Amino acid sequence: MKHIFSFVAIFLCTTSINAQSLKITLNSGEVNQFNASEIASVEFLPENAIIPTDLSGEYEAMMKVSLPAMNQDNLVNEQTKFSLTKTSENVYDITLPSCSYTMGTSVMTLPGVTVKDVTLTEVDGGFAFDTTFSGTDGQDKTYSGTLKGTFNADGKTFSVTESMKYGSMPFDLVMDYTPIVE
């Protein structure tokens, strides 16, 4: 009799588990419901766990151009746009704008560049990158530089720094891109 009672108790427990469902309500109000029998596992991630995201898109930014070697700050301080295009998992092409600045009485123009195959690594609740690039513009002038930056996971907060030597320039120009604060 004891075995029959144990069997009935186990049967009732498993039957009641299979009949249950899990209801999840998000902060947005969206509700998702799952049958308990369909759930293979539940995993609680740390608060700072990164959810894979696609940062592709066009970003509006403030661009500040400086020439640190000559103590020249704010050669340019203007709104601009740059873009990220995802080419594979965590790999992007980053397209940066051209810009013009005045040095003495001369107007100088830096070309826009697309830095290809930039790998973004997950770090501190967001993504970071640090790479070098080089190439030639349409006037056979060479350019080379570094590109580094960070993006938070939602892409709303970022900091991008481009350092470029263009043509026969002896020093790097530094372009800092930050979100536009309204």
Key words describing this protein structure:
13 strands; 182 residues; disordered N terminus; 56% strand; mainly beta; nine-stranded antiparallel β-sheet; Lipocalin; two-stranded antiparallel sheet; single chain
Class of secondary structure makeup: mainly beta
Major β-sheet annotation: 9 strands, antiparallel
Report the strand count: 13
What share of residues is helical?
under 10%
Broad shape:
elongated
- Ends apart, CA distance between termini: 76 Å
User: What do we call the CATH topology of the largest domain?
Assistant: Lipocalin
Task: Give the spatial strand order of the biggest sheet.
Answer: 8-5-4-3-13-12-11-10-9
CA gyration radius, whole angstroms: 27 Å
What is the CATH C-level name of the largest domain? Mainly Beta
Give the DSSP E fraction (strand runs of 2 or more residues): over 45%
List low-confidence stretches. Answer: 1-16, 45-51
For the record, the count of structural domains works out to 2
Number of helices: 1
Describe the protein's architecture and organization.
This protein is mostly beta strands. 10% of the residues lie in helices and 56% in strands. The strands form three sheets. The protein has a nine-stranded antiparallel β-sheet, with no helix packed on it. The chain has a two-stranded antiparallel ribbon with strand order 1-2. The longest helix has 18 residues, at 2-19. The protein is elongated, with a radius of gyration of 27 Å.
